[in-house]
Write a structure and sequence with these properties.
- By secondary structure, this protein is an alpha/beta fold.
- It has 2 domains: 157 residues, NAD(P)-binding Rossmann-like Domain (Rossmann fold); 122 residues, N-(1-d-carboxylethyl)-l-norvaline Dehydrogenase, domain 2.
- Helices cover 54% and strands 13% of the residues.
- It has 13 helices and 9 strands.
- The strands form 2 sheets. It has a 6-stranded parallel β-sheet with strand order 3-2-1-4-5-6, with helices on both faces. A 3-stranded mixed β-sheet has the order 7-8-9.
- Helix 3 crosses helix 4.
- Bound molecules: NADPH dihydro-nicotinamide-adenine-dinucleotide phosphate.
- The site of NADPH dihydro-nicotinamide-adenine-dinucleotide phosphate (NDP) has 24 residues, from helix 4 and helix 6.
Amino acid sequence: MGERVGFIGLGAIGTPIAKHVVRAFEAVVWNRTREKAEAFARDHGVTFAASPAELVGRCDVVMTCLPTSREVRQVIEAAGDAWRQDQLLIDATSGDPAGSRATAAWLAERGVGFVDAPVSGGTAGAEQGTLTVMLGGEDRWVERARRYVAPFARKVEHVGPVGAGHALKAINNALLALNIVAAGEGLAALVKLGVPARRAVDVLNASSGRSNVTEHLIPERVLTGTWPRTFSLALLDKDVGVALDVLADTGVGSEVYAAVKRALEAARARLDAQADHVETIKVIEERAGVRIRL
Ligand code: NDP
């Protein structure tokens, strides 16, 4: 029999990722809100653990998908003495490199490996099993981790040591945030000039300024006015903060990323705590006094 996998964190993206994992491997799940773990276990024919310690005690490989590296550390420490030599933690959280290096060191003292494995592709990509996974860690742990991320991934890359995956993910999401803010402000101005939003987006998407935001997020969510909640603005703001830390730590710095961070913070102040990241454009619309609709 193969290794047993434990999955911690059945949130918006953790749940569809976990569906692929439990289909491929013998698995146990744990979630802070127990009802979600019970429902998932019932729906997918797996068992759930009553605590992180129980899960760690029952598994060879543990996967986490939590809001930040802080919650990952809390859950890992909560499992305490349950950790054993040669276990592996694969962290799919969009975490921060420094937090991951500290957690990896804590686990290494117990003979446990750590691989950061943040993902890109959203909840739709997770459902379809087509995520991009950015692996950070030592070769031997990364090679072992590959088979556990394969069920939900289309592209898997080992990008560097522990924390490198989280650094790359943070930069990716800062670029996403930048595109949301810049496209939202630009389209608001164009609509005020009398350019129909649909036509402006179509032309951008046949031109050099196009991005995932103009090709997918704006047509599917903003022009239609549907605004689904798949990835919270609070989490994107966290990612841009991590990116700013990466830029500061490397001495590169950035005025642009700092401006995007301020724009997200301003949007959070106007929206409720569960707001989706794309709802940043609602705040831009409000400020401009215009609607970017079909
Ligand atoms: P959610 O807020 O939907 O889910 C968070 C999960 O973490 C829940 O299972 C929640 O449990 C659990 N949790 C929160 N705080 C704690 C804690 N203190 N102790 C234990 N468990 C806790 O987040 P997402 O699923 O959207 O995101 C998870 C990670 O994936 C984040 O790092 C995010 O940036 C990243 N990500 C998300 C994407 C998306 O499209 N949603 C895309 C790519 C990356 P409970 O059910 O009890 O609240």
